[in-house]
Design goal:
heterodimer, A: mainly beta, 6-stranded mixed beta sheet, 4-stranded antiparallel beta sheet, 0% helix, B: mainly beta, globular
């Protein structure tokens, strides 16, 4: 079965420090990978995606992610975290026919 | 200009009742979805419609019935509500792309509480 795993329930980082939220995937064939963010009591917002091409993908709010085929990973990164980045982050993979399978989510807490 | 809207935002009802949640998108997308997010924030797809045609139907109890009157609307009707149906339900939409290369846009969610 095609899936993504987010091994960390929570990531804590100080404001101004770089952040990484981890995601690994398990799919047959070439994956379409996505990152979404959910702020409290809100719907999910699209951040970025990898479909093909350059392994480093840039997205909204200064976030980027690196697709690593050999390690089957798609980690989300930001060079300098903001307190306002605190939210729930979901990695997702499209398994075909536009069906998204989400990871369990990682709560990011950025302290001032 | 709300891209994907849902009504109501909150829904509190008793076991056994029937309720509906409405969703509308003004993005011109061909595909719409319903997701369920449980209390642990786990998100799972329930249904997907493309141009009013059902294309994804996960293992959801048949008490749940989606209806798509046109490609801009996808409603969710739930019969005989149970305690376990309490969750946040999200509607989403996307363009139709090869193998799902397009991102999905989510509504604000409907928090359903069954007492």
């Amino acid at each position: 079965a095609q899936s993504v795993a987010q091994p960390e329930d929570q990531v804590n980082v100080a404001e101004g420090n770089p952040l990484t939220v981890k995601c690994t995937y398990s799919v047959s064939g070439n994956p379409y990978l996505f990152w979404y963010v959910q702020y409290p009591n809100r719907g999910l917002q699209f951040l970025l995606k990898y479909i093909t091409g350059d392994n480093l993908v840039k997205g909204s709010y200064g976030f980027e992610a690196e697709f690593n085929k050999s390690q089957t990973s798609f980690h989300l990164k930001k060079p300098s975290a903001l307190v306002s980045d605190s939210a729930l982050y979901f990695c997702a993979v499209n398994t075909g026919f536009q069906k998204l399978v989400f990871g369990t989510g990682t709560r990011l807490l950025v302290s001032p | 200009d709300t891209a994907v809207s849902q009504t109501p935002k909150y829904l509190v009802t008793q076991m056994g009742n029937d309720k509906s949640i409405k969703c509308e998108q003004n993005l011109g997308h061909d595909t719409m979805y319903w997701y369920k997010q449980d209390s642990k924030k786990f998100l799972k797809i329930m249904f997907s419609y493309n141009n009013k045609e059902l294309i994804i139907n996960e293992t959801v109890p048949n008490r749940f019935s989606p209806k798509s009157p046109d490609k801009a609307h996808l409603n969710l009707h739930i019969n005989s509500l149970e305690l376990g149906d309490s969750a946040v339900y999200f509607c989403a939409s996307s363009q139709e792309g090869a193998r799902g290369s397009y991102e999905q846009y989510f509504g604000p969610g409907t928090r359903l509480t069954v007492t």
